[in-house]
Amino acid sequence: MTFQLAACAEMLWRDRPIEWRASRLKELGFGVGLWNWPDHDLAKLERTGANFTIMNGYLRGRLTDDEGAAELLATARETAQVGKRLGVQRLNLHGTGLGDRGLPVTPVEVVTGAMWLKARDTLRRVCELADEEGVVFTLENLNLPVDHPGVPFGRAEDTLALVSSINHPRLRLNLDLYHAQIGEGNLIELCRRALPFVGEIQVADVPGRCEPGTGEINYPGVARALERLGYAGAVGLESWASGDDELALQRFREAFTI
Predict the structure, then answer these.
(1) How many domains does the chain have?
(2) Model-level pTM?
(3) Tell me: the pLDDT tens digits for 219-236?
(4) What whole-number distance in Å separates Cα of residue 36 and Cα of residue 116?
């Protein structure tokens, strides 16, 4: 197996308790991705012994202004403690907090130069926090046309620009290829340019956000390209199942088995 495969527990077996999902993913040989930790019983998750690969790294806040940055940093510090308790490998950030249906709590129509500068400053402070706590944060790209309109720094080009300009080992990209396909396309070239800064790659097919093989993305081709480029890190399935959950996981594994 070339890649470290994981799957988002929040999106599979949705009628089951989250700790059951984590345990089942562990049994099947997958790492486990989570969203917001306050939604779950941490003691039950700990007892699963699962390999938690990624989790939302903040509860509220945004990169673009003083008030939002202070809130993001405070909740990121709180979340870092939870991440260390569960052994989470990466704590995930966005340009702004997300609310119902993934929509931004504070939407931004125009990202100004001042916002770019503030975002860079906020992420540098995130790196200082990460050094203090001994954790790794990732910044995730999101698509604007379909799922997350109004999120600042949503495009992969934007997240790559921010992370590469800071170039700190405790701040990496969470490169989500589902979002990138909708917003930008040209995935293999994007992977080539972004790979030096990638902490995790996440996948789902387009349209529909289901497992590989249900849409237009040639994920076996992407997997071969990633291997040629020397990537051997985490690939996380962040998708709904088109039908049976375990069949979706099987299709994901097959697409990323070289």
Answers:
(1) 1
(2) 0.97
(3) 999 999 999 999 999 999
(4) 26
